[in-house]
């Protein structure tokens, strides 16, 4: 027990644990909309795009949150605009924007010989270098995302489920989509130090998928996904310290293990359930 | 859009709509009166769904005017094929979406719960309120979306292909339900591919192929001439029990024994 509690005496670990737990909950919450709107690929792409902004701001000596934030918001709005226009297939458009941005980040690091700890941390996540600023950033984005989900719950649900009728019913679906993209960009930005850009997509997708297997109710799916995400962040960060593996992989592996267990546990049940399901008289 | 002083719920005058550079609707004139029950028929790509969007206000015409009565409440029922049936919502949660502009809190008030219960009872699906939407029959699924539309107490109900892909029994069930709602004063405008099963049973039919090619009672509108201009194919119209029955002339010519086949009836 002492061994388990020992890392808590270090400030960097306490910060890392707080950020990982909040990051897990945040990605779990935002991920519900990402998964139900079929935006998983956008989440994956956006995290890669933000890497370009991270590289540029690191090398130019600009504050990471400001530089990568501006880059992320621009990428999010560009992806949102491209997918709404439907001139070319949206997955192809996302591939172009985000992969080019990721490649630019890699090129910038190579060109200025900037590879090192921060490079690895951005790609795979790291507990080292997580400071008070990161705790505040992830807390602020979490509060903003929760406020959006609470205050615009009905409009977001309608837009996610049935955008055409939501539009007719007076919901500004374009604004809702843009708000979701901004929150998604903010979430990726605030969590990338812990999770790493290559692994954030898993934190966005696995907790909602686990929650979906456990409930048919949207509101329950929201809090279950956030709780599962927080648990994965907490457990993954502790494992990261004790196994001396980067935090991104351990958090994702904890989530993937939970997914596997719930999938196995619910599969026979759901098959029986489907047989039972029949139209009510 | 301007507010109408006239009695019509919606009036379209010279409406032209475009997607990219292509005209989908050209110079459409159409009035919907209170209590009307209108079926819009036409081939695929004739602009039926665009017409619904223009009436609903989710699409603006490139030319022409759409005049709605001041404060008109319109509800829209989408094609059930467009719905994601695996989405995690129960029947009651789905119906409550209509109250998107109600109170800001996520959970329903007591009054909202009661209103949902009342509308579900009216459509005979109150016992299903906590069921997931996938666990319903086709008719029950259609009723859920009609219930969601009705929760906003609309004066005009717009429905996109309410009977596409449903069997004969369910088609009758939906038609009876709509007839009942119309008898209580609700104006309904629906699009349909089904000339004999739906359009011929309605009091008013509009033949559409980018523009309105005929409008009026089915017996007056479903004629070989109007249908050929609408569908670009020769059709014969028989009469059965005082109602027109549309028959595909091509199949008719090629079936020497009966002149009719399952495939021949449109």
Quick recap:
Chain A has 281 residues and is an all-alpha fold. In chain A, 83% of the residues lie in helices and 0% in strands. The longest helix of chain B is centred in the middle third of the chain and has 16 residues, at 168-183.
Task: Identify the overall geometry of chain B.
Answer: globular
Count of helical segments of chain B?
Answer: 8
What is the overall number of helices of chain A?
13
Q: In sequence order, what are the helices and strands of chain B, one letter per element?
A: EEEEHEEHHHEHEEEHHEEH
What number of domains of chain A?
1
Spatial strand sequence of the major β-sheet of chain B: 6-7-8-4-9-10
Strand content of chain A: under 5%
Explained architecture:
- The complex is a heterodimer of chains A (281) and B (266).
- Chain A is an all-alpha fold and 281 residues long.
- Chain A has one domain (7-264): ABC transporter involved in vitamin B12 uptake, BtuC, CATH 1.10.3470.10.
- In chain A, 83% of the residues lie in helices and 0% in strands.
- Chain A has 13 helices and no strands.
- Chain A has helices at residues 2-5, 11-36, 40-60, 64-85, 90-111, 117-124, 132-151, 153-161, 163-168, 173-195, 200-214, 218-243, 247-276.
- In chain A, helix 2 runs parallel beside helix 7 (132-151) and helix 3 (40-60) runs antiparallel to helix 11 (200-214).
- The longest helix of chain A is centred in the C-terminal third of the chain and has 30 residues, at 247-276.
- In chain A, 49% of the residues are buried.
- The model of chain A is unreliable at 273-281 (pLDDT under 50).
- In chain B, helix 5 links the parallel strand 7 (156-160) and strand 8 (187-192).
- Chain B is globular, with a radius of gyration of 20 Å.
- In chain B, helix 3 (110-122) crosses helix 4.
- A 6-stranded mixed β-sheet of chain B has the order 6-7-8-4-9-10, sandwiched between helices. A 4-stranded mixed β-sheet of chain B has the order 1-5-2-3, with helices on one face. In chain B, strands 11-12 form a two-stranded antiparallel ribbon.
- Chain B is built from 8 helices and 12 strands.
- Chain B has 266 residues and is an alpha/beta fold.
- The two termini of chain B are 37 Å apart.
- The chains are: A mainly alpha (281), B alpha/beta (266).
């Amino acid at each position: 027990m002492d061994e388990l509690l020992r890392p808590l005496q270090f400030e960097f670990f306490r910060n890392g644990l707080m950020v990982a737990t909040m990051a897990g909950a945040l990605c779990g919450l935002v991920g519900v909309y990402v998964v139900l709107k079929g935006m998983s690929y956008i989440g994956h792409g956006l995290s890669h795009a933000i890497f370009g902004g991270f590289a540029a701001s690191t090398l130019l000596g600009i504050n990471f949150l400001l530089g990568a934030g501006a880059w992320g918001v621009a990428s999010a709005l560009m992806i949102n605009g491209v997918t709404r226009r439907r001139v070319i297939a949206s997955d192809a458009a996302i591939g172009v924007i985000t992969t080019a941005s990721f490649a630019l980040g890699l090129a910038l690091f190579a060109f200025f010989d900037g590879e090192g700890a921060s490079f690895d941390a951005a790609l795979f996540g790291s507990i080292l270098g997580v400071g008070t600023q990161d705790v505040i950033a992830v807390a602020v984005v979490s509060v903003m995302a929760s406020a959006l989900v609470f205050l615009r719950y009905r409009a977001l649900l309608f837009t996610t489920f049935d955008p055409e009728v939501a539009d007719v019913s007076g919901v500004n679906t374009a604004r809702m989509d843009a708000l979701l993209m901004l929150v998604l960009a903010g979430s990726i930005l605030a969590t990338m130090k812990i999770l790493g850009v290559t692994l954030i997509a898993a934190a966005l997708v696995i907790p909602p998928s686990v929650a979906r297997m456990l409930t048919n109710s949207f509101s329950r799916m929201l809090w279950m996904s956030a709780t599962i995400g927080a648990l994965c962040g907490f457990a993954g960060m502790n494992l990261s310290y004790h196994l001396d593996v980067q935090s991104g992989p351990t958090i994702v592996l904890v989530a993937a293990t939970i997914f596997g267990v719930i999938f196995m546990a619910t599969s026979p049940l759901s098959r029986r359930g489907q047989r039972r399901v029949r139209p009510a008289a | 859009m301007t507010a109408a002083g006239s009695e019509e719920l919606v009036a379209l005058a010279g409406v032209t709509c475009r997607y990219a550079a292509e005209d989908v609707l050209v110079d459409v004139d159409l009035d919907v009166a209170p209590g009307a029950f209108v079926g819009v028929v036409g081939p695929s790509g004739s602009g039926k769904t665009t017409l619904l969007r223009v009436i609903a206000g989710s699409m603006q015409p490139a030319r022409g005017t759409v005049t709605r009565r001041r404060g008109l409440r319109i509800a829209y029922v989408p094609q059930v094929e467009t719905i994601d049936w695996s989405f995690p919502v129960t029947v009651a949660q789905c119906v409550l979406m209509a109250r998107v502009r109600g109170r800001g809190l996520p959970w329903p008030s007591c009054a909202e719960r009661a209103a949902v219960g009342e509308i579900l009872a009216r459509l005979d699906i109150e016992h299903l309120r906590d069921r997931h939407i996938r666990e319903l029959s086709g008719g029950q699924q259609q009723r859920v979306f009609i219930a969601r539309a009705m929760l906003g107490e609309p004066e005009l109900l717009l429905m996109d292909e309410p009977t596409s892909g449903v069997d004969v029994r369910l088609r009758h069930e939906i038609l009876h339900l709509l007839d009942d709602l119309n008898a209580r004063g609700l104006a309904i405008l629906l699009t349909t591919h089904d000339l004999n099963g739906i359009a011929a049973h309605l009091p008013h039919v509009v033949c559409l192929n980018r523009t309105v090619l005929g409008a009026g009672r089915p017996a007056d509108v479903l004629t070989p001439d109007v249908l050929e201009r609408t569908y670009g194919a020769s059709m014969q119209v028989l009469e059965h029990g005082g109602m027109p029955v549309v028959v595909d002339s091509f199949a008719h010519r090629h079936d020497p024994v009966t002149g009719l086949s399952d495939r021949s009836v449109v």
